[in-house]
Design brief:
Blueprint: H1 3-6, E1 14-17, H2 24-33, H3 42-51, E2 57-61, E3 64-73, E4 79-87, H4 96-105, E5 115-121, H5 125-138, E6 142-148, E7 161-167, H6 170-177
Parallel strand pairs: 4-5
Antiparallel strand pairs: 1-2, 2-3, 3-4, 5-7, 6-7
Helix pairs in contact: 2-3, 4-5
């Protein structure tokens, strides 16, 4: 390669895709690096990547896992539940969290979802900002209610998790189905 070609910076390649089990270890490391997310076992991330791949997202930047969403369709409901959103410090400021969520909501496997649910503690400003931004971008309504409470569910060891619900507008769902 000519010397002057070595100095040219290549554009970074971002790919959003379904995970596979070989992503489990990288996802586990990413979640560990994204405090205050709860760390799951590596095995949990392997199972998510295999059994729930249709409702999970990996963000790959130049061959490195820099983003992760774990989610699932809630059984017997038309709702997509987002468990975790992780963005590597190396990929922050790219709007990656919202890109991954939008990518997920637009998947064929999520066509029947009329709402998106997630839980967030009151002090998690970054998550509140992300999901409010998503609701605005989708034109959906955002609401929340205490769901898993500090004393009733967590024996005083964890802050109350609020169930956040974003209604997914009908036109958006119809556009995905078309």
């Amino acid at each position: 390669m000519p010397k002057d070609m070595q100095d040219i910076e290549r554009p970074r390649q971002l790919v959003l895709r379904k995970p596979d089990p070989t992503d489990g270890a990288a996802v586990w490391e990413l979640v560990r690096d994204c405090k205050p997310l709860d760390e799951n076992s590596m095995y949990c991330n392997l199972v998510q990547a295999e059994h729930f791949r249709d409702t999970c997202v990996v963000a790959d930047l130049d061959g490195d896992v820099v983003g992760w969403i774990s989610g699932h369709m809630i059984p017997n409901e038309d709702a997509l539940f987002v468990w975790q959103v992780a963005v590597s410090p190396r990929a922050r400021g790219l709007g990656l969290g919202r890109k991954m969520l939008t990518h997920l909501v637009e998947r064929d496997e999520c066509t029947d979802a009329t709402r998106l649910n997630t839980t967030i503690t009151r002090d998690n400003d970054a998550s509140w900002a992300l999901f409010r931004s998503l609701a605005r971008a989708l034109g959906g309504e955002l609401s929340d209610d205490p769901h898993f409470t500090r004393h009733e569910h967590f024996d005083g060891r964890h802050a109350t998790e609020h169930m956040v619900t974003i209604t997914l507008p009908r036109p958006a769902r119809q556009a995905r189905a078309a």
